[in-house]
Amino acid sequence: MAQIRDQLIGVVLDGRYRIESVVARGGMAMVYRGTDLRLKREIAVKVMHGHLASDPSFVERFEREAMNAAQLSHPNLIAVNDQSRDGDVVYLAMEYLESVTLRKELKFRGRFTPRQAISVVDAILAALEAVHEAGMIHRDLKPDNVLLGTDGQIKLADFGLARAVTNATTTKTLIGTVGYVAPELVTRSGADERTDLYTLGIMFYEMLTGSQPYTDDVPIQVAYRHVHDRVKAPSEAVPGLSPQLDALVLWATSPNPDDRPESASSMRQALGEARLAMTDEELDFGGTSDAADPTEPVLTATADIDAQIGIEAPESAPGTGEIPKLTADETPAEIDSTADLAGTLTAAAVSADGTPPVDLPPVAGEPTAAEELEADDEPRRSRRRRPLLMGLIAAVAALGLASSFGIAKAAGLIGGQAEQEAVMVAVPKIEAGTAEDDARQTLEKAGFAVSAESSHHGEVAKGTVIETRPAAGKELQKGEAVTLVTSDGPETVAVPTVVGKTEDEAAKALTDAGLKKGEVSTVEDQGPKGRVVAQSAKADSQAEKGSAVDITVSSGPKTTALPDLRGQEYEASYKRLLGLGFRVARDDVYSEHTPKGKIVAMYPGPGEKRIADTLVILKVSKGKEPPKDDKKKDEDKKDDKPKD
Length: 644
Hints:
By secondary structure, the protein is an alpha+beta fold.
């Protein structure tokens, strides 16, 4: 097939569509940039792969869906201009749009402001209104299929092919991107318009928070969570988002389709009402001064054709990079010659005045370095020890820290030398907490040289003595060095930011930083319930290691239980909810059991506690749905009425 695809460049399909260049390769098709010779305009040409084009049942379904899609005309839909086959080439001719995908824009921004997200969702809902009204379902909504045009247009793409592929696959195959899949597609309980609204709710959540609600390395685990879990409010991930947005997302992502918006139109109406109810501060929450509106022309002139016609570029799988490892017979390189190492150390050890290091005599009874190299039957470790030590001694001597003779003597390397008996002195006792200067004077009076080092200590004051090395009472030769270990005070660590975390997350963050959780208090706050809203130690300040940091946790804002309004008159229910501080959206539906004008259902449900300003959706009965014949009679009666 690769040769056939390459040969398509320059070919004119059906005497009209000239193939100009390859744009992208996907799992189902090749995509080319083309020219419509009849209308003199640029187009995208999608050519199906051979294994699909050779399947008559697939081609039949694909042609039928493509023809249905071609009947749709809406400013928020990518237009399908033509579908045909020329010999073995089955193709689509589609609208060309210079754009970036919503996916790429999300990767660039991280997340959108509510105002930006609402604009994108509104455009998608407008497109879905047209699709659903035509009796079609998208089934594979995702950010990759939403195009943000360089001219400011927002368009939805690739609904016909998703349906055709779904019909052509086996019942064991789940079509759709698992991060956005509706529960009913997983459980095979059937799909309708509300399936698309669930997926759009997931996308709305992602635009507001910067991440999908469910993620896992194992796709089936994500699908399981769509069925068995409940999407959390976006404000739990991004504290400060409006309750209006929480209500809309939770409504759209209800696991039960009956609890979702009845249609794209009803959701779009509620979206508009929520937008009007929000302040400018709420709409622009989280925005930056240099962040352009994604609904305005994007700053790229490259057409994202692959997403436009439903082909995704593969992303690198996490964790595929390999870390080099040693095999069983690969070991780190060893030093081939200990004599070379000793020589290197000796050559490098030049004193401050430029004089070469002194030559140390070989130890009595020990072989020279050259002799060691000849002793191949000795273990390498035993051959290495003495030359290495000799080199180190030479280095120290050359740096002027002691005479070569004195060091060799202290190391016990020179034998057979007649020395006078050394004067031995016990290290005096220095109490912990003694000032460093006082301790130094005591040791010097006893005849010792004094060196110093410091260490953190939680109880000994900074600048005072912790201990001596060797300890008090140890006898040393007069003139040898005693080390004073002084305190740097308690060890300090940086205090982490725990505001916005749960209590458990805060405790872990403090423990990981070398601190511990102190007292926990609660306070009513607009922040999400269970999240830390204050900490006793300022973030990024220094605190003593092991000390406690107190935290204050939000008990949540004041909530009010929703009254049971089912069966009540809408007007009275509306006023009652307003009196309780809620906002109200109306959704008119037919009902077989609830009289016209009364409440069929409400969301959130009766008894659920919500904060003020929460949007409550009331489903109001329009009465029983009349038979189609009755509708026609009613219309005829209206026409027969005498005109004034």
